[in-house]
C-alpha cells in the first residue's frame, strides 16, 4: 500500500503543531497535502534521516543539496509557503527541547525514526564547509572568501551575465535588463561619491572589476581594487586590460587591512562588509576612515537584517553559514550607522533599496536555471542546487522584509566641519 506521504505528513504535523502548507510526495509515489500546492518531493528515506539528525533549516538544506529533496511546482511559491515553518516561528516559539517534552511530539519522533530506518546519521554533502570559528582573522577570511568566490569565473558568468556585478542592481523599472540595472547601480555609486577626473578611488572587495572599470572609464578616476579571491583578480585584470585602462586601474589580491597607500578621495565598499563580522566592524570602519582624505566619501553598500529582541546573542543562518557565506554576518542598519559614526564618519545619507535586490536575485536565478546543464558541469549538482536555493530563498526574504540592503554615504568630515556636501545632497537621481 502506497501511504508513505500521508504517514509522513501526519507525523510532521504532530511534531510541528501546524498543518503542512505544501504537498508531500514520497519515495513510494504517494501524495498527501493541500490540492494544487507545490509538492515537496521526498525522494528517499535518507531525507527523513537528515531531518531527524539535524531538525530545522540545516537538515532541510542538507537534504536539498544532496538531492534527497526536490520541489515540483513553482519554486518561489514553495519557498514562500515553507518560510512560515523555517523563518516565521516567532521568538516565542517552543524550542526543540520543549517540543520533545510533549508526549504527542515524542510519539511523532518515534514514528519518523521507524520510517527512516535504519536511523543512522548520513554524512553531510561534500559542499558543506566545516566552520571552526568566527574570529575573522586574515587567514580565516581568505578561506571563507575562497569558498564562495572561487567557484569558477565561468559559473559566475552564467549567473551574473555580462555585467559581472555580484550585488544588488538599481532598477529603473521591473522589466529593464539586468545589465542596464547594474550599470545604473554603478553610476549611482559614482555620483554619490562625487567622482571627478584625477581623483583616487579605493574599491574594497572589487569582485570582477566592474565598479573599478566604470569609475575609471566614465569618471576619469584612478582606482585601486582589492579582493581576496585570486580568480576574481585574474578575471578583473584581464577586463581592465581589454578596456585599455591599465594606466588607471590596479587590481590587487590584498586584505583591506593591509592597504597602506592612502589617502583616497573616495572609497566604495559594495557587498563586502557582510564578511567583516560584528567583532571586527569598528576596526573595518576605522581602517576605511584613515584611508580617506579629509572631506573624502565612503559608500557602504551592505545587506542588513531586522533587529532581534536580544542583540547580545550570537545567531547565524545555518544554511548560509554552512554552504554559502562561511563566517558571514548581517547587522541591522542602525548598528552599521552607529559603528561608522563611532569610527569618526559623518553619515550623510541612508537609502534602502530592498525591493531592488529581490528583482536582482530573481534574474540571477533565471540565468542559472537557463544555464543549468553547464552550471552543473562547471561545479557539481550539489553546488548548483546550493546557489539556486540560496538565491531564490534570499529573493523571498527580501520580498517579505526579513532582510534589506542599504547604501550608506558617509564623509570623513574635516576638523573645520565643512563636509563639502551640497545643501541639497540628493542630486544623484
UniProtKB/TrEMBL annotation:
EC number annotated for this UniProt entry: 2.1.1.-
Domain Polyketide synthase-like methyltransferase intervals: 155-410
UniProt xrefs under Pfam families: CMAS
PANTHER family, A to Z: CYCLOPROPANE-FATTY-ACYL-PHOSPHOLIPID SYNTHASE
Protein family per UniProt: Belongs to the CFA/CMAS family.
Native species: Streptomyces xiangluensis
Domain of life: Bacteria
GO biological process: methylation
Record-linked Gene3D superfamilies: Vaccinia Virus protein VP39
Keywords noted in UniProt: Lipid metabolism, Methyltransferase, S-adenosyl-L-methionine, Transferase
InterPro entries: CFA/CMAS, CMAS, MeTfrase_dom, SAM-dependent_MTases_sf
Transmembrane annotation, as ranges: none
Protein name: Class I SAM-dependent methyltransferase
One Gene Ontology term of the molecular function aspect: methyltransferase activity
Amino acid at each position: 500500500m502506497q501511504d508513505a506521504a500521508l504517514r509522513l505528513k501526519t507525523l510532521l504535523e504532530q511534531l510541528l503543531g501546524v498543518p503542512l502548507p505544501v504537498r508531500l510526495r514520497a519515495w513510494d509515489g504517494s501524495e498527501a497535502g493541500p490540492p494544487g500546492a507545490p509538492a515537496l518531493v521526498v525522494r528517499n528515506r535518507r531525507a527523513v534521516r537528515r531531518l531527524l539528525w539535524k531538525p530545522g533549516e540545516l537538515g532541510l538544506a542538507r537534504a536539498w543539496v544532496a538531492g534527497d529533496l526536490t520541489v515540483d511546482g513553482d519554486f518561489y511559491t514553495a519557498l514562500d509557503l515553507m518560510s512560515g515553518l523555517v523563518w516565521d516561528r516567532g521568538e516565542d516559539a517552543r524550542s526543540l527541547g520543549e517540543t520533545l517534552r510533549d508526549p504527542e511530539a515524542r510519539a511523532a519522533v518515534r514514528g519518523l525514526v521507524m520510517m527512516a530506518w535504519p536511523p543512522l546519521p548520513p554524512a553531510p554533502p561534500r559542499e558543506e564547509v566545516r566552520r571552526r570559528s568566527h574570529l575573522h582573522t586574515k587567514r580565516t577570511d581568505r578561506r571563507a572568501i575562497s569558498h564562495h568566490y572561487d567557484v569558477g569565473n565561468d559559473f559566475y558568468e552564467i549567473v551574473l551575465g555580462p555585467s559581472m556585478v555580484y550585488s544588488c542592481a538599481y532598477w529603473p523599472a521591473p522589466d529593464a535588463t539586468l545589465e542596464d540595472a547594474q550599470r545604473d547601480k554603478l553610476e549611482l555609486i559614482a555620483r554619490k561619491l562625487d567622482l571627478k577626473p584625477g581623483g583616487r578611488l579605493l574599491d574594497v572587495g572589487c569582485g570582477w572589476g566592474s565598479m573599478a572599470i566604470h569609475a575609471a572609464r566614465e569618471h576619469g578616476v584612478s582606482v585601486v581594487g582589492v579582493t581576496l579571491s585570486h580568480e576574481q583578480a585574474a578575471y578583473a585584470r584581464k577586463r581592465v586590460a581589454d578596456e585599455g585602462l591599465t594606466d588607471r586601474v590596479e587590481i590587487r589580491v590584498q586584505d583591506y587591512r593591509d592597504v597602506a597607500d592612502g589617502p583616497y578621495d573616495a572609497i566604495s565598499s559594495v557587498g563586502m562588509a557582510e564578511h567583516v563580522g560584528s567583532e571586527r566592524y569598528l576596526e573595518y570602519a576605522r581602517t576605511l576612515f584613515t584611508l580617506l582624505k579629509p572631506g573624502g566619501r565612503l559608500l557602504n553598500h551592505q545587506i542588513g537584517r531586522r533587529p532581534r529582541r536580544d542583540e547580545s546573542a550570537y545567531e547565524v543562518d545555518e544554511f548560509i553559514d554552512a554552504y554559502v557565506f562561511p563566517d558571514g554576518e548581517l547587522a541591522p542598519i542602525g548598528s552599521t550607522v552607529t559603528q561608522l559614526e563611532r569610527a569618526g564618519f559623518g553619515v550623510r545619507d541612508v537609502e534602502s533599496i530592498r525591493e531592488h535586490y529581490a528583482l536582482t536575485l530573481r534574474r540571477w536565478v533565471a540565468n542559472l536555471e537557463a544555464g543549468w546543464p553547464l552550471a552543473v558541469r562547471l561545479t557539481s549538482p550539489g553546488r548548483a542546487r546550493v546557489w539556486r536555493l540560496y538565491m531564490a530563498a534570499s529573493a523571498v526574504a527580501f520580498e517579505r522584509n526579513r532582510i534589506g540592503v542599504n547604501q550608506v554615504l558617509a564623509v570623513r568630515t574635516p576638523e573645520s566641519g565643512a563636509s563639502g556636501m551640497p545643501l541639497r545632497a540628493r542630486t544623484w537621481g
